[in-house]
Structures are given as C-alpha cells and as structure tokens.
Amino acid sequence: MSWFATAFGLLLFLINLPFALAAGGLTAVRFDPLTATVESTGGALVAVTGFSGGFNLGNFTFITGAPGSSGSFGPSARGALASHETGHTLSVAVFGGLYTWVNALDENPPTYRHSFAVGELIAESHFPRNDTAWDSGPARPTVARSHVRVWS
User: What is the pTM of this model?
Assistant: First the structure.
C-alpha cells in the first residue's frame, strides 16, 4: 500500500536526479539504511515547487536547500530536517501511501494546519526537535515543536 506514495516519489526522483547531481554532485544524494529512505537535495524540478524545507513521497525525500543542508543521517542527525522526513517514510510504511496524500491535504490550504497536522506530529516523533522555530514565518505563530510519540 505504500506504493501510492512511493511510485510518485520514484518518478520524481528519477526525473530530478540529473538536476540534483548537476547542482551538488554526489553529495546531493544519500541513503538512510535505518529507514530505507533515499534523500536528494536540490535540483531544478524540486526547486520549481516553491516549497522550502523538505517533503517526502514514500521512500524518497526531497530537500529543497543546498546539498548537505539537511545534516547527515543517523543518530548525529537528531533533530535535523532529514530526521523529520525519514519519520514520514516510517509513517508510510505503517499507514500506507494514501496516508501521505491525506497528510498533504491536512497540512496545506485550505485546512492549513501545517505542522499541527497529525501526519507532521507523528513524523516529528522519529527524532524530535526541541526548539521553537516550528511554524515561524508570515502569519504563522512561533510555537514549541510538538510531536505524537510513535517512533521514539
């Protein structure tokens, strides 16, 4: 059931891979053996989304910043964006790919629950971050990071 998200992730990864490699070389792609997540950073196609940060489609994570900006995987990545995104991989493995699309609707307009969407709270429990910059930005409150304890 995870293929509802992973198939789209694989397609986007394969299309964006040459652009990510051109932008950052081999450091633009990483593999997390703990969660079987393939992460790519940068790339013209992902940058076109206008999304800042990262997003996950099944076993594929896309970080929109410069290569290496998400930190390394594993225990040293505790609290990094990559850790949060690999939390989404775990959620898809348990709840299925449809869960990814429901979470996308829950965190974006018109509901715009953003980081208070249940899918975001569950993903954050993989390696919880403990700062207060969770939702800072225009028209968004600065609040303490929250998580639903599932993975940690």
Answer: 0.77
CA 13 to chain centre: 13
Report residue 68 as tokens.
Answer: 């290496």
Label each residue of the chain as H, E or C: CCHHHHHHHHHHHHHHHHHHHHHHHHHHEEEECCCCEEEEECCHHHHCCCCCCEEEECCEEEECCCCCCCCCCCHHHCCCHHHHHHHHHHHHHHHCHHHHHHHHHHHCCCCCCHHHCHHHHHHHCCCCCCCCCCCCECCECCCCCCCCCCCC
Residue 21: phi and psi, rounded to 5, are -65, -40
CB 7 within 8 A of CB 56: no
The whole-angstrom separation of Cα 98 and Cα 131 is 30
Q: How far is CA 4 from CA 8, 15, 89, 102, in A?
A: 7, 18, 13, 11
- Residue spans of the domains in the chain: they are 3-124
Residue 64: count of CB within 10 angstroms of its CB = 20
Give me the helix-helix angle, 81-95 and 97-107, nearest 10°: 130
Q: pLDDT tens, 13-49?
A: 999 999 999 988 898 899 989 899 999 988 877 777 6
